[in-house]
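Table 4 source record.
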Amino acid sequence: MNKHLFMFVLFFLCTNVLLAQKKVSGVVKEADTNEPLIGATVVVKGTTNGVITDLDGHYTIDVNANDVLQFAYVGLETHEETVGERTVINVSLASSSIKINEVVVTAMGLERKAKSLTYATQQVGGGELTRAKETNLINSLQGKTAGLVITPNSTGAGGSSKLLIRGNKSAQGNNQPLIVIDGIPMANSTTTQMEGEYGGRDGGDALSNLNPDDIASINVLKGASAAALYGSMAANGVVMITTKKGSVGSMRVDVSSNTTFETTLDAPKLQSTYGAAVSGSGALAQDSWGEKISGEAKGANRLDEFFRTGMTTINSVSISGGSEKNQSYVSYANTSANGIMPTNTFTRHNMMAKETFKLFDNKVTVNASLNYIIQKGRNRHEPGQYRNPLTGLYTFPANGDFRQYKNEFEKYDDVKGYPVQQWYREVNQDFSANPYWVLHRNPHTEKRDRMMASASIRYNITDYLNIQGRLNYDRIADLYERKIYASTSTTLHNVNGEYRQERDDSRQFYGDLMVNFNKTFDAWSVTASVGTSFTDLKETGVSLATSGDIYIPNYFHLANGSKNGAGNKRNKTQKRLNSVFGTAQIGYKDMLYLDVTGRNDWSSTLSYTPNVSYFYPSFGLTALINEMTTLPEAFNLLKARASYSIVGNDVPAYTTNPTHEFSNGSVKFNTAIPFTEMKPEKLKSLEFGFDLSMFDNRFEMDFTYYKTNNTNQYFVMSVPAATGFSRYYFNAGDIQNSGFETTMSWRQPITADLSWKTSFNLSYNDNVIKKLDDRTDIKESDRLTYVSLGSVMGYDMRLLEGGSYGDIYSKTVQRKDGVIVVNKEGVPQFTKDFEMVGNVNSKWNLGWSNSFNYKDMQLYFLIDGRIGGNFIDATQAVLDTYGVSQNSADARDNGGVDIGNGTKVDAARFYQAVGYKGVGGDYYVYSATNFRLRELSIGYAFRNLLGAGKDLGVSLIGRNLFFLYKDAPSDPEVSMSTSNGYSGSNYFALPATRSFGINLKATF
């Protein structure tokens, strides 16, 4: 009886338990990107009952109504939900900028706990790059990373971008950070750049080639301490790119299509009131200082007629999946862009494949990847005076018939026997030309073929010791072709035209071998690596051009010249860097971490000197205060960190042993004195800061102060011709950068369906030339007084001791008691010597983003800005000189230009004096302070629209939509070149653009 009663009670209890249990399912996604999370854990709190999400982020678990589910994913915040009566629970996990237990990828691809890092880094997810795509993926990081300043060239699709971390450090060398892909340094060489007012082309950079949909994350290593393991290549910091790879699970297909339209945001303000003087024959004068226009101003709308609505489409598809032993990822992307300037087009094809194999009971891991890129650009804009359609477009008089020259930009010349340019004035009268002639009869194309192949193998000797080897091959082949038709301005070309081909090939071979150790001994932990690496770079450039008298006009063949071969040039550069390195991190009770690194480089660029080998160390310390003592309950993390490093930076190839070169059909002998005592630059860096997380990680903050001093700069000076040489090199100088960076974020759940996240970043950098020429073994008269980095229209960017990198010098308008000094004809008078009129670098940079999530809808916007610094608008100076600017019309309407005391002088005399060749100095130097709505996105995710777990995301996107504030007449972030001396100036660069469009994402 008792036995039967016991069995009945047991059956009853079990039945009630089974009846109380139910199945709950749902999807786990990343809040920032709305992408499903593969491998997220879903656990019943306080139990071992748990599951892992599949390839589509789906899960199903048996629970009771009163259970609490915990959702977790590495690098994201843990989230809890009480089950209740629900059977479907979808969760979005928020990202965390300070993750207590997150593992991040650091220098050389080594993994470290984020809380143990002794230096500042900032990681951005791949979703930030694909929310509103750019043809150059790095531009999508603008305003999102403290301390990283990104300035795209204003040359159109596929153009280069300048990256700067914590200011300019090298006077004559490269200031851009090292780009690393999956732990391996990438060749990010920038090809030809404009370096002068005559103009020049932007050949693009290597970073712009990558497909943004292939990027999993970008981690910015800001200081030299963070990047010390990469050695002299990384003296300016590192941008670490981690690409996507295959994962365990069934096959997953991701498809995206992004289409945006571009319009001009900030075209020059031109007047339509006054025209050019008309001669008796009806010819128009070259400027617009004539009478008021009595009839129709036919040229008033020439900008609207010339610029078109640009369009960019980026389509991509990727397939991933695999088993425990093998994971695969393949992708293809196509980019097609039509710029705002007629005839400007750009196309790119990206193909990528990655394989991961785990062999011998997971003791051996093999990775292999192949990335192939083909791209072509046509008529990418070239800033400067010549070969630029904007000079003729902007200076065209409002009373001229612009459509006439648009529809008939050429006419056949019976005498010459070929079509010639048709324009309202003589072609060689000045730099002006018919814009449509430049586009159709000065065409140029750029082609790039690039392949990146890498392989790695890791063998786990034990669970705490492994050995790893990696190889990478990166090849870039560029072909540039230009045709100049007869009757183009002869300032730079033969009267019968010119044909030019340029071929540039870059091949970088990289390899490393490392032994890695990671073990815990009771309260102590030790993570260490030792290794060796080599980088072998070969660059070859060949420039072929017709030269002398062209035999047959408009016959584009290299043999069509009287001096065949005289225009040819060839250069070859080979550089090798061999290195050994080691790093160790010792931790105590998860509360103290000590970092030590050391690296020794042997650089071929320092051959023939005693300094071919150079060593540099770094040290860092982190203290987790929240682990050392009991803090108020609100604190989740409080970490203090400090680091110090010394990093070398080698010099350009053949500086210590100059070589001869082939130029203009003959050998050009070296005229530089070999510098056999040359030393590498030495960058000393100190930084300290703290990381803070509070209120269940809803509030996060980090702060870093840094100071760097870069000594042993290399300079060049001329020597008397009697020596048999023209120049020599020497080491000197000390450039200091100091400042701080901070990021803050707050996440606020408002309701069960609505949440808000806001992030703010701010950086400040102060640059000082502490020493310029501090040599002690020379006469004072032989000392270098300043270095010119570049000049545009009378503005010279100079380095002077006590000044700052980017100081602008020019002759300026004389003033007395605030009044402009003029002569009796009303012409402004100018200073005899150059004076400092500004600095192109903004000391303050900031970004503020906000994201609102309501169920399956998301609203995101980003505002960023720069405070301080100056901007040279040489375009505005020319427009004032020619009388086509709105300024010139306003001055005439007001009876002249007020010089400061109520006295007005003739507008034509005033502007023709101050606007020509930059002699007005500060008159065309504006504040670079600006704030803008950088990015906007409104999206909705249609769940299971295409089947279970098959979602469709649709978002409306916009970039660079409008200014909240600016002082300059054009966008102060317009840039003509990534070269050191040409940032912060505009000389007929393309106007800034705004873009808006739609982004579609589907998952199968």
